[in-house]
């Protein structure tokens, strides 16, 4: 299965009930207010900041590579009486034919791109979709290995009439290639019926130097700020645009 199709089938249902509702919508709202609308969220899924911000009336568009996430997201918006568009595309192939003053990812979705070549393609796509004075917000994460005591231990939750279960079954942690491949089992049990899906969850991370280098190749300037241990926020701007460092000179 292609990594961009990870969140399909029973996965969106189980992801939603197990993820909880903790996310910092204010960070994304402040970013959009600073840089302007319309804003574009890459990897908007079917829950999270995109839907909160749409409900607040912000002028937004979303993109997601999973046809199930796109369908569920569109249904959710329609049920709320909103006509916010969601495009079914991969961010690395993005072709919307227009630019945005604000482009953002909510959480470290950029780390789902499985290698540097795909990340570079996505950065080039971001550059093509940014207004000349626009900015992109890309949260980044450096994962550790999954603790050994969590492997094989299911996490469970109720999903409607079903029991949802998520179990890490194994992991390849490869610091040389900055890639963690976790084998995960998703299970949805409804009465006597059980659906099981085994997936490879790939997280690919970057050193600051590698990320800056990829951004530069894509024609972007990257400003990196550490927000928590192993979590960084990148602000990207077109390389010809004035930055806070050289504005006014
Ligand atoms: C971890 S979920 C986060 C969804 C949402 N932003 C939220 O905060 O709940 C990541 C989303 O990114 C999407 N995604 C993964 N790879 C993608 C890609 N290459 N291009 C576009 N979307 C992608 C997935 O389908 C999924 O919906």
Give the helix/strand layout.
Blueprint: H1 11-19, H2 25-35, E1 39-42, H3 49-55, E2 60-64, H4 67-79, E3 86-88, E4 100-104, H5 116-128, E5 130-141, E6 155-159, E7 162-174, E8 179-190, E9 193-204, H6 208-217, E10 220-228, E11 231-238
Parallel strand pairs: 1-2, 1-4, 2-3, 4-5
Antiparallel strand pairs: 5-11, 6-7, 7-8, 8-9, 10-11
The structure holds S-adenosylmethionine.
S-adenosylmethionine (SAM) is lined by residues 4, 7, 23, 42-45, 47-49, 63-66, 69, 90-92, 106-107, 109, 112-113.
In words, what does this structure look like?
The chain has 249 residues and is α/β, with parallel strands linked by helices. It has two domains: 3-142 and 205-247, Rossmann fold (3-Layer(aba) Sandwich); 148-204, S-adenosyl-L-methionine-dependent methyltransferases (N-terminal domain of TfIIb). Helix content is 25%, strand content 35%. The chain is built from six helices and eleven strands. The strands form two sheets. The chain has a seven-stranded mixed beta sheet with strand order 3-2-1-4-5-11-10, sandwiched between helices. Strand 4, helix 5 (116-128) and strand 5 form a beta-alpha-beta unit. The termini are far apart. The model has no long low-confidence stretch (mean pLDDT 94). S-adenosylmethionine (SAM) binds at residues 4, 7, 23, 42-45, 47-49, 63-66, 69, 90-92, 106-107, 109, 112-113.
């Amino acid at each position: 299965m292609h990594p961009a199709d990870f969140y399909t089938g029973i996965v969106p249902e189980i992801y939603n009930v197990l993820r909880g509702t903790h996310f910092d919508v204010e960070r994304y709202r402040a970013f959009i207010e600073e840089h302007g609308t319309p804003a574009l969220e890459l990897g908007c899924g079917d829950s999270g900041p995109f839907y909160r911000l749409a409900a607040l009336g912000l002028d937004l568009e979303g993109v997601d590579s999973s046809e199930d996430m796109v369908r569920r997201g569109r249904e959710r918006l329609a049920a709320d009486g909103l006509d916010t568009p969601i495009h079914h595309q991969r961010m690395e192939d993005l072709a919307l034919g227009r630019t945005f003053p604000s482009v953002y990812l909510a959480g470290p979705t950029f780390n789902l791109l499985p290698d540097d070549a795909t990340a570079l393609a996505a950065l080039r796509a971001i550059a093509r979709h940014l207004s000349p004075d626009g900015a992109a917000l890309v949260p980044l994460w450096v994962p550790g290995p999954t603790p050994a005591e969590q492997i094989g231990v299911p996490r469970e939750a109720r999903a409607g009439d079903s029991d949802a279960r998520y179990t890490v079954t194994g992991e390849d942690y490869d610091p040389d290639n900055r890639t963690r491949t976790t084998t995960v089992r998703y299970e949805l049990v409804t009465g006597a019926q059980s659906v099981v899906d085994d997936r490879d969850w790939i997280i690919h991370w970057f050193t600051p130097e590698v990320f800056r280098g990829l951004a530069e190749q894509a024609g972007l300037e990257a400003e990196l700020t550490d927000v928590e241990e192993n979590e960084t926020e990148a602000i990207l701007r077109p390389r010809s645009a004035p930055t806070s460092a050289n504005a006014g000179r």
